[in-house]
């Protein structure tokens, strides 16, 4: 059977192999229950704690294609919904990624939605209440959502200024799942698995992560994420010395302040003698 053009568009978004995701609480059950009744979901939590990996895993688990849009400050409603573009035969409508997901029944993941222009909320509101429809004003079309369509957004309350916060009327449409860095033994398991690192090394790096997180709000906007710990473990796997790997993957990216680098370095050094014995 020939694929329809739409099926062709979405096949690129299908997730064939299971993305590794280590559940930390009841997030898998809550997301599955939300999806079962097509409720929109908001993933809240700091950077690098597994939100993107989780949504990839859930899309795979639920057998739905995943359309991801990374929001940025210039992202407009037209970037999501679509626009007319000039073509040799005149102007031709091009669906945006959200419209594609709505028509074809994908999970659409809008990453850091609060960064986008305010007009984007206008398009997501009717999609996230009982209407489940996407108005394409310029085209004069109201697209009813495919029964399998679902919207997931990520939102990091810590980083937003009041001006950029989501509106109450937006927030209150979503089921929320809160993410944080997992408890040390679980985080070590993740770091070891993702970086192919020895458990001992992973545990030491998690200790480094904990130290850095203690400086959160005391000069550091955020401590080292699980992502950073994985990077450090990969550098060690690639031949770097542990202290050099920590400096390159954690200390230097996380702050530009010399004083803070020193404080962080000292906090980390306190964990290192034991860790260095691994080398
Ligand atoms: N629970 C977990 N299971 C498996 N891998 C995880 C988990 N948590 C974090 N990771 C690892 O950490 C990396 C960073 O996670 P991810 O990209 O999902 O973060 P994020 O929360 O989406 O961050 P951001 O807000 O910056 O987009 C992943 O690539 C994965 O390797
Ligand atoms: Mg992400």
How is this structure best summarized?
With 279 residues, the chain is an alpha/beta fold. The chain is 44% helix and 16% strand. The protein folds into two domains: 5-178, P-loop containing nucleotide triphosphate hydrolases (Rossmann fold); 184-276.
Explain how this protein is built.
The protein is of the alpha/beta class and 279 residues long. It folds into 2 domains: 5-178, P-loop containing nucleotide triphosphate hydrolases (Rossmann fold, 3-Layer(aba) Sandwich), CATH 3.40.50; 184-276. 44% of the residues lie in helices and 16% in strands. It is built from 13 helices and 9 strands. It has helices spanning 5-11, 27-36, 51-62, 77-81, 97-104, 119-124, 168-171, 184-195, 199-214, 226-237, 242-254, 258-269, 272-276; strands spanning 41-44, 66-70, 82-87, 90-95, 107-111, 133-136, 141-144, 150-155, 175-178. The strands form 3 sheets. The chain has a 5-stranded parallel beta sheet, sandwiched between helices. Strands 3-4 form a two-stranded antiparallel sheet. Strands 6-7 form a two-stranded antiparallel ribbon. α9 (199-214) crosses α10 (226-237). It is elongated. The site of adenosine-5'-triphosphate has 16 residues, from α3, α8 and α10. It comes from Hansschlegelia plantiphila. Belongs to the CbbQ/NirQ/NorQ/GpvN family. Residues 40-174 form the ATPase dynein-related AAA domain. Keywords: ATP-binding, Nucleotide-binding.
């Amino acid at each position: 059977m020939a694929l329809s053009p739409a099926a062709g568009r979405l096949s690129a978004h299908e997730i064939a192999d299971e993305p590794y995701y280590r559940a930390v609480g009841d997030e898998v059950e809550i997301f599955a229950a939300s999806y079962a009744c097509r409720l929109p979901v908001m993933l809240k939590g700091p950077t690098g704690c597994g939100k993107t990996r989780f949504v990839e895993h859930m899309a795979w688990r639920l057998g739905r294609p995943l359309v991801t849009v990374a929001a940025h400050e210039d992202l407009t409603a037209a970037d999501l919904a679509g626009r007319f573009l000039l073509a040799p035969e005149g102007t031709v409508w091009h669906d945006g990624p959200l419209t594609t997901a709505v028509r074809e029944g994908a999970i659409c993941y809008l990453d850091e939605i609060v960064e986008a222009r305010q007009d984007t909320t206008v398009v997501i509101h009717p999609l996230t209440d009982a209407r489940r429809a996407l108005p394409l004003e310029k085209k004069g079309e109201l697209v009813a959502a495919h029964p399998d369509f679902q919207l997931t957004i990520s939102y990091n309350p810590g980083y937003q200024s009041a001006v950029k916060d989501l509106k109450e009327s937006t927030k209150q449409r979503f089921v929320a799942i809160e993410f944080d860095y997992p408890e040390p033994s679980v985080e070590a398991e993740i770091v070891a698995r993702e970086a192919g690192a020895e458990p001992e090394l992973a545990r030491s790096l998690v200790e480094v992560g904990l130290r850095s997180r203690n400086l959160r709000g005391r000069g550091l906007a955020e401590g080292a994420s699980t992502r950073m710990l994985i990077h450090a473990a990969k550098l060690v796997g690639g031949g770097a010395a542990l202290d050099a790997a920590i400096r390159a993957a954690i200390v230097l990216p996380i702050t530009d302040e010399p004083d803070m680098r020193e404080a962080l370095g000292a906090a980390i050094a306190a964990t290192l003698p034991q860790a260095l014995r691994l080398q």
